[in-house]
Amino acid sequence: MAAPMKVLFATNHAYLPQRVGGSESSTHDLCLTLRECGVEVGVLSRLLLWRPIKAKYRRQLSLRWGNCILRDDTNGYPVFRAWEPALAVPELVRDQRPTIAVIQAGRPLTLAEQFTTSGVPTIVYLRDAFFDNLGGAVRDHPDVRYAANSRDLTRRFAEAFGIVPVHIPPLVRSERYRVESLRKHVTFVCPYPIKGVEIALQLAGRRPDIPFVFVESWRLRPVQRLRLRWRVRSNGNITLRSTTLDMRPVYRDTKIILVPSLCFEAWGRVVSEAQVSAIPALASNRGGLPESVGEGGILVDPDAGIDAWQGALSRMWDDPAEYQRLAALGQQHALRPEFQPSTIVSQLLTLLAETVAGYDGRRGASGR
Which of 19, 85, 160, 232 has the fewest Cβ atoms within 10 angstroms? Predict the structure, then answer.
């Protein structure tokens, strides 16, 4: 009987609960689903001193100070936290013997090189369009394959580097997000400059009758946080909420999910999380957002000006029939067959198996 596949996800970013974002949530959902399919999984991530793990987690940790690797099993699978993830690769490969590595986010090519040097076939799973932060030159390496979480990102990467990634959408386990929404407010996640915080603030100022909730995600610099809190206090209709691992209480009160990103989003995971509960999106017509929104919302050019954004918001908030139409279309979009976890995991498992088989074939031919 063949041994189960062991997949090690790796990132130079921190990981849940030290860092909360779309990439981390997608990886968590993937790990949970792969485990249900009999696949052994683990995550290698950065350990942040200034974001200590809470005491209720720390009691369950196994700490080895020799090379500063912290093993944390509280997510339901092992997470290996290291000061420098790339330096931890040789030891983890020796101890854990992964079948394959899946690299994501934060200079991924630095980690890819470490894994291939250690004899582990590798997939670089692209989850953002920040091509200046890949950590090295993109090259067509026989032991490295690429995947991307949206068609837009697949196209951009192919145009930039001449390599066409396999398109695998982010996995969303609907039971972790589904609620009966009370439809009380507009929700904006990650109040960060490139995420369109200025557009969100201006919209709140234009519509003081609509309550807004801003949910922190990416870590803000102290000056950014002070400025944001000052701006929020000046708008009586904005509530600022801290980072949370459970978004259901947020979505339970959400009527519209606002995603006014200025950057080329690879996907826009909060859209998919909200659409599970028939919550439509008001989002930028940029990057992968048109694919994630589908017909379940309204898209606005991020440079169109605040009047265009206000008009779209008013159309969704003030017209009950239009709102119900978009809400229904959003939920239909979330339920489309190609976006279901079973389909996405099947695609990923096929890619993993093909990558391992290709590597084993080359290793057998070369005698390695």
Answer: 160
